[in-house]
Amino acid sequence: MKNGFSRDLGRFGPDRCKVPMTLANARRYCGRLARSHYENFSVATAFLPRRLHPHFHAVYAYCRWADDLADETAGGAGALALLRWWRGELLSCYDGTPRHPVMVALSDTIRVHRIPREPFLNLLFAFEQDQIVKRYRSFEQLLGYCRNSANPVGHLVLYLCNAFDAENAALSDRICTALQLANFWQDVARDLDKGRVYLPQEDCQHFGYTTTDLEQRRYNPAFVDLLRFQVDRTRSLFYRGLPLVERVPRPMQADVELFVRGGLAILRKIEQRRYNVWAARPALAKWEKAALMAGTVWRRVNSRLFSTEVAPKNGSSPVCSK
User: Fold this and answer.
1) Residues 48, 122: one domain?
2) Selection from 143, 102, 132, 107 nearest residue 230 by Cα
3) How far apart (Å, rounded) are the C-alpha atoms in residues 15 and 99?
4) Single residue among 92, 113, 132 that ends a domain in this structure
5) CA–CA dist 106, 100 (Å, integer)
6) DSSP class of residue 122?
7) Domain for residue 5, yes or no?
8) What is the rounded CA–CA span in Å between residue 181 and residue 145?
9) Are residues 179 and 225 in the same domain?
10) Co-location of 217 and 141 in the same domain
11) Domain assignment present for 208
């Protein structure tokens, strides 16, 4: 267990939060948690109105705690028990009696942005599923997992920016699922270390990549064909979700585009390594991340400068608002 999370679990774990924090202190805790765990958080929030920062911090802190309860504890029955406790804390938050500092901060976010409980609960279902399901028979089953593990995050972001509707949610689902899949193909070796395999069994069989091949981490033509197939259909999902960029409020457009282009860049890295993710994990260098961000900002600025869109009569422009 990570030292920081172990300390926080000792302070704020089950039966520890007898007296709730003030909202101000809870927000400070969530802010510190977000900045210390997510190296790109300052970049992502740089494009957002400052009034939204505490709300993004609260949502991130909820997800961070759920992830750590699932992956940074003993796992199995112990992790499932902790995740059940976390669900109880969430339900207390919706009942108006938050106790945990994350839930105190999240309670205000939920109230301001009228967020339903389903996205938060679906995320917990995915973390619980990871404790039980280690392999996936079909791509459809894997997509079902992504509907809980990835797509709710996109929904939460849309709620935070008052941009949630059925069409935006569908586009967001494609991007979030693609991001999750890109991470799976990037982390085939890491996941196998944890006993998890996200390569669909029916695809492995189709391309002739056997269970023995997988367990021995063989890089062979069958694996190349298998991973090429996964990369190609993941790229298609990214492109099918790309129209969301122009549909979200302007302060969010750079973030959405950056996520898409970052995911596509990971797929290109996998291709450049000739799909040999066993030898080394494909990852972007710092200069590549900086170039992606600079290019995205440049495109967003030019889009505004040369847009032919007619401004609203009151002179306002669409922004993320409460």
Assistant:
1) yes
2) 143
3) 10
4) 132
5) 10
6) H
7) no
8) 11
9) yes
10) yes
11) yes
Which of 98, 136, 138 lies closest to 117 in space, CA to CA? 98
Instruction: Specify burial of residue 312 (Cβ count, 10 A radius: 0-12, 13-18, 19+).
Output: exposed
Q: Is 65 exposed, middle or buried (0-12, 13-18, 19+ CB in 10 A)?
A: buried
User: CA–CA separation, 202 vs 199, rounded Å?
Assistant: 9
Whole-angstrom distance, CA of residue 173 vs CA of residue 156? 11
Q: Do 41 and 182 fall within a single domain?
A: no
Indicate if 143 and 244 belong to the same structural domain: yes
In this structure, is residue 7 part of a structural domain? no
Per-residue pLDDT tens for 90-139?
Answer: 999 999 999 999 999 999 999 999 999 999 999 999 999 999 999 999 99
- Per-residue pLDDT tens for 236-286? 999 999 999 999 998 888 889 989 999 999 999 999 999 999 999 999 888
User: Where a domain ends, among 132, 167, 202?
Assistant: 132
Residue with tokens 């976010």: 109
